[in-house]
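Service request form, structural biology core

Requester: graduate student, group of Dr. S.
Request type: structure prediction, single chain
Budget code: on file
Notes: please return the result as structure tokens.

Sequence provided:
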Amino acid sequence: MNESSFNIFLSDGKLLTQEAKLNVLSCFDGMSCLHIALDRLGIPVNKYFASEIDKYAMQVTQANYPNTVQVGNVEFVTKEMLNNKIHLLAGGSPCQGFSFAGKQLNFEDPRSKLFFEFVRLKNELKPKYFLLENVRMKKESQDVISKYLGVEPIMINSNLVSAQNRVRFYWTNIPNLTLPDDKNILLKDVLENEKEIVGARRGRYLVDGIRQDGKMLTAGKTKQYLEIRNDEKSNCLTTVQKDNIVIRDKSKCVRSGGRGSYDRHEWDSVDKNHTRKLTILECERLQTLPDNYTKHVSDSQRYKMIGNGWTVDVITHILSGMSEGKKKNIVTAKMHDPLIKTGT
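Core staff response, request fulfilled:
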């Protein structure tokens, strides 16, 4: 871990020194993207508690951060169980009940109700800082979250720090939050072959070549089309691979594995193009993960957890606000347990 001179201020303006280190509770932790962001900022961690139930995501976490304390299902996490003062509470509650891409079941969806477990822990633990991430949703759902958390969200597109279009809402009390600077990262910086582009297969209903989005569910009239992006960015990574398809004109590609093969990828033919899925390495880079961070599980599980994960550099940008403030006094906070080195 990078031990920098990063400073974190407590509620009274006093400085939490590196000797004290943070206690963190990450709800719906996944593969611990939050921990990667903390490492990139050089924020020292004492105890990192991870609430997660996916065994494969937990396997990746423990391989990269073996001192992570797994505490299981968020519904059963309590203040007494943690037995440590929590300085940072963060999470991205399951979004399937909120998402525009889902069925818009909102708070009636059991997965979306897990948001209230985050609220419960925020009220019980009273952390100095909190951060909640979620997808774009109906305004009424957004307002409910804002009411319970006491802050309005900021909307950040990952395309500012990555080659991926990924719009998310972030609710936090971390100060001085602004949009990150545009790093101008394009697909050519991420793809293993920079001459390729990305599109998606979409079910569309077209009339004279014009999309009829209001009629997309008309029985028997939708057809799969290959839609190509023109902004040198990818679509949002999801667990559905057809949402991101790498495309190359047939004239620039030959059959994979054959004599004179252009590259090692398997290609499908669509109209005048060849297509393939993104590689795992490309997906990791689109989420600004370290290369091969997820290598400890099967490819199918790697694709799934990357699609469900956070764009690390967005979280890094948000957490950087914890260093802002006027230094009044330096204090070493009293921790319950001895310092534990985390990370690899």
